[in-house]
């Protein structure tokens, strides 16, 4: 981690492969990011000790246009397993953020406890998840 008296900041610059910003030399990109952070009064340029650039390809999931029909095959097959629930971003194929996951997890636990009290094994997806799970853009 950062040495005493220093701290670190991570700046995410999303882009597609071969976007102009992705082809930019690392020094130019760092300069652009620092300039923007200074403009936002988040950092003082004189206090920037160093920067490092890490390129991560395919960091974000990119869904194909027909993904919802393929997902239906998977979810219907998994629904045959009575004591299995899939949750989370990948488990629900739901393009979501951390706060969504926290809320969905709480909703799932509440529904699971209710199902257990009623003698069922796992809550049906529709009973706890009100998000549109497919056909999202
Ligand atoms: C590049 C990027 C930037 C993001 N930025 C933000 C942001 O700024 N704000 C925000 O709110 N959200 C952001 N998100 C979204 C957020 O990260 C996700 O919504 C959230 O992490 C999903 O939580 P999850 O628990 O469903 O899945 P994950 O966090 O993906 O957790 C799934 C876990 O399961 C593990 N796993 C997978 N397969 C197996 C296996 N077979 N056996 C054992 N373990 C397995 C994985 O290693 C992983 O640790 C970002 C996502 C990405 C990819």
Number of domains: 2
Total helical elements: 6
Bound molecules: flavin-adenine dinucleotide
SS-derived structural category: mainly alpha
Strand content: under 5%
Mean pLDDT: 87
Note the overall shape. Answer: elongated
Percent helix: 40-55%
Q: Report the strand count.
A: 0
Order of helices and strands: HHHHHH
Residue ranges: pLDDT <50 for 5 or more in a row? Answer: none
Quaternary structure annotation = single chain
Q: Please summarize the sheet with the most strands.
A: none
The rounded Rg comes to 22 Å
Q: Could you give the distance between the termini?
A: 38 Å
Write the topology of this structure.
Elements (H helix, E strand, L loop, with lengths): L19 H4 L2 H14 L27 H12 L9 H5 L5 H20 L7 H4 L9
Bound molecules: flavin-adenine dinucleotide.
Description of the structure:
43% of the residues lie in helices and 0% in strands. The chain is mainly alpha-helical and 137 residues long. It has 2 domains: 1-59, no CATH class; 68-127, no CATH class. It is elongated. The model has no long low-confidence stretch (mean pLDDT 87).
